[in-house]
Amino acid sequence: MRAAVLRQYNADLSIEEVPDPVCEPDGVVLKVLACGICRSDWHGWTGEHPRVKPGQIPGHEYCGEVVEAGPLAKWRVGDRVVAPFILSCGACPDCQSGQGHTCKNQRLPGFTEPGAFADLVSVPMAHNLARLPESLSPVVAAGLGCRVTTAWHALTGRAAVQAGEWLAIHGTGGIGLSCLILGRAMGARVIVVDVVPEKLDHALSLGAEIAIDARQGDVAARIVEATGGGAHVSVEALGIEATTNGSIECLRALGRHVQVGMPVGHTARMQINMNAVYMKNLALFGTRGMPSWRYPSLLALIEAGRVDMRPLIAREVKLADASAELRAFNGPTPPGVAVIVGLGA
């Protein structure tokens, strides 16, 4: 099969013929129908993700068609499914308590084992998969496995956003746009922050009430003024110190900060304004992924027409274009996200 292989950090992925993956007893092998390109892939490509080593096949936002199923898997050949990027064991105390995204035995295609920048991908622990609704295209579904699921759990499972609350979003990449679309569906009033005017305009077209250009000064103070006291919930979607502090400082008393952006490598440790946390009685939440059992609540929202995730997708690209998309994360990116198509042909 074809695959894009990381041979050297910060260099073009190598398009190679590699052996087909092996189906595990509790897993499936999927013909990849589409795979998103995520900033987390970029962290691995640059060498800052501690788990991603040369020789890795990236790709963790995928959907596909079952071409082989293990004897312990419930799926059958021909089923179309979508996967969360964290595959949980289902048996440990974390999984049994409903928190599979914190599973100590988790498997991570694209990070710790071969991912879906390939024609085929092996998915162990296939009980994590969800059936792809007929109404959802593979291209849109490919964006669900990381950014949209993470955003859904951040807003509902962590911050518990309520209708009428102000929701501030720092960074309008895939996670930020997902939070915007889902937050609006939940009745939140959304304010977005970025440094790219085109991305701010795009966010306004998707329903953001206010867009703030971070290049123009004190973001937190401007959000406090615009919202009449500060945001109730603020999402940091980049994983850097400046926006993390901006997110914390823009909150009103008793506000909730959600750290969704990945602090890794040189951003893993930050200087944080803990005085703001203390004085305003703030709550700080970290979030990574979503328990797979929550897929039906998200898919039902999409199938019912309450949210339209199609505006999230800006570009459909070929496998050979993945390197250029990864390199684009080195600077401010254009609006929307890219999805690899033409896989599994």
UniProtKB/TrEMBL annotation:
Keywords: Metal-binding, Oxidoreductase, Zinc. GO terms for molecular function: oxidoreductase activity, acting on the CH-OH group of donors, NAD or NADP as acceptor; zinc ion binding. Transmembrane segments: none annotated. The keyword Chloroplast does not apply. It comes from the Bacteria. The keyword Metal-binding applies. Its cofactor is Zn(2+). Residues 10-340 form the Enoyl reductase (ER) domain. It holds the Pfam family ADH_N. Belongs to the zinc-containing alcohol dehydrogenase family. This is Alcohol dehydrogenase.
